[in-house]
């Protein structure tokens, strides 16, 4: 079966990953490691990256069984580990994607990017809040749900959610530390968001079943 373009790109990044200084990655992010793998948690899952071939895998049972990370997961992990400039650059100030430092101010890209997700969670506020609290902590901001998430332990994101009413559709909003671009490229933020949303949805379904 032929590989998709996404799989080809992911596989190419494996080769790039192993060119980088892994000792620096370990020190920068305090990664657990052994002679074969680097380990980190990402959105409530345990991941390992093979130090020789760059393959990223996740597991729910301490790697007795494991699954290769998909495109979004792999590319986010590779970018953070390889590109991240430092771990002391968080500002503690959060803003929407179009207001990040180093970007041209414009209307928010993809206003409807998470509309499907917002619609899915409509009527499921308690479940969404319960799932989000597994990954973070409540914050005093507007919204039916407002949580500071930690998809990576060192890189929080704020999620705000409003249920639909008579005037407005449901709305899902992410806000990022102003300096997130010190940790990943702009394009990777979308992969980061999608992975967070996917796992929130998976856990939310588990609470509903």
TrEMBL record:
Domain of life: Bacteria
One Pfam short name: DUF3786
InterPro entries, alphabetized: DUF3786 (IPR024264)
Domain DUF3786 intervals: 28-190
Name by which UniProt lists this protein: DUF3786 domain-containing protein
Annotated organism of origin: Blautia argi
Lineage summary: Bacteria, Bacillati, Bacillota, Clostridia, Lachnospirales
């Amino acid at each position: 079966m032929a590989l998709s373009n996404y799989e080809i790109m992911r596989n190419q990044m494996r080769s790039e990953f192993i060119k980088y200084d892994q000792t620096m990655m370990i020190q920068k992010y305090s990664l657990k490691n052994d002679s074969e793998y680097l380990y980190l948690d990402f959105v409530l899952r345990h991941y390992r990256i093979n130090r020789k071939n760059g393959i990223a895998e996740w597991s729910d049972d301490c790697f007795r069984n494991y699954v290769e990370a998909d495109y979004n997961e792999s590319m986010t992990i590779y970018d953070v580990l390889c590109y991240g400039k430092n771990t002391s650059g968080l500002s503690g100030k959060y803003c929407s994607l179009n207001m990040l430092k180093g970007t041209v101010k414009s209307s928010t890209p993809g206003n409807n990017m998470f509309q499907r997700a917002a619609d899915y969670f409509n009527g499921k506020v308690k479940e969404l809040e319960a799932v989000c609290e597994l990954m973070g902590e409540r914050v005093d901001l507007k919204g039916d749900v407002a949580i500071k998430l930690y998809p990576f332990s060192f890189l929080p994101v704020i999620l705000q959610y409003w249920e639909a009413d008579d005037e407005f559709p449901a709305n899902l909003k992410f806000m990022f530390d102003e300096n997130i671009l010190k940790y990943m490229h702009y394009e990777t933020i979308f992969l980061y968001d999608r992975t967070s949303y996917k796992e929130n949805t998976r856990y939310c379904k588990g609470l509903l079943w």
